[in-house]
Design a protein that fits this description.
- It is a single chain.
- By secondary structure, the chain is mainly α.
- It has one domain.
- 59% of the residues lie in helices and 4% in strands.
- It has a three-stranded antiparallel beta sheet with strand order 2-1-3, with no helix packed on it.
- Helix 1 packs antiparallel against helix 2.
- The termini are close together.
- The relative contact order is 0.22.
Length: 198
């Protein structure tokens, strides 16, 4: 079943992306690579768990479903193997939509955090807050000196949230492909309608 082969390929791609999302979000709890004294000094978006929930945990379920589709006929359907495979492909479409929602959540949280900038000890008034507005720091690395502590928090947050943004975007594309693939598999059954990844 060609659509099952395609789904297996997509599922295999989602696993490492989910791991990257989990790791990136975990590293955000250590701004600048250091343990922080007060959790209130972490950016709010870190606590939204975009990489852990959206790109990580919610992506594991679709990935496992996609990986198991090639040989899955859902025990047949009233003795009709083709019907069972079509049902399995339809089920994969539902999981792919869940994947799109999870990755979309991670993507949105990351985009908001990149635009807002990190929470840090601000040099102008020696309090913790967000010294940047509407992404004004992105093209001006000289303004990063507005953050005194944690050291290197701006490039740290920018790099990790950028990774989460890219991972989320790729996961959305992969799950969207599986939505189409799953619908084709549901409608076509064993027809040679996909051919992706052999």
């Amino acid at each position: 079943m060609c659509t099952g082969s395609c789904a297996k390929c997509l599922g295999g791609t989602l696993i490492p992306l989910a791991v990257f999302g989990l790791l990136a979000n975990i590293l955000l709890f250590f701004p600048g690579g250091k343990v922080i004294d007060d959790n209130d000094h972490l950016s709010d978006e870190v606590w939204y768990f975009g990489g852990i929930l959206g790109s990580g945990v919610l992506m594991i379920f679709p990935a496992l479903v996609f990986l198991g589709l090639k040989n899955n006929d859902c025990c047949g359907c009233c003795g009709n193997e083709g019907c069972g495979k079509r049902f399995a492909m339809f089920t994969s479409t539902i999981f792919a939509v869940i994947g799109v929602l999870g990755a979309g959540y991670s993507f949105i949280v990351s985009a908001i955090s990149i635009n807002r900038g990190p929470k840090c000890l601000m040099s102008q008034n020696n309090t913790w807050g967000y010294p940047f507005h509407e992404g004004d720091y992105l093209g001006n690395s000289d303004s990063w000196s507005k953050c005194q502590k944690p050291s290197d928090v701006v490039p740290w947050n920018l790099t990790l949230f950028s990774i989460l943004l890219i991972v989320g975007a790729v996961q959305i594309i992969i799950c969207a492909i599986q939505v189409i693939n799953g619908l084709l598999g549901t409608l076509c059954g064993d027809c040679q309608c996909c051919g992706c990844c052999g």
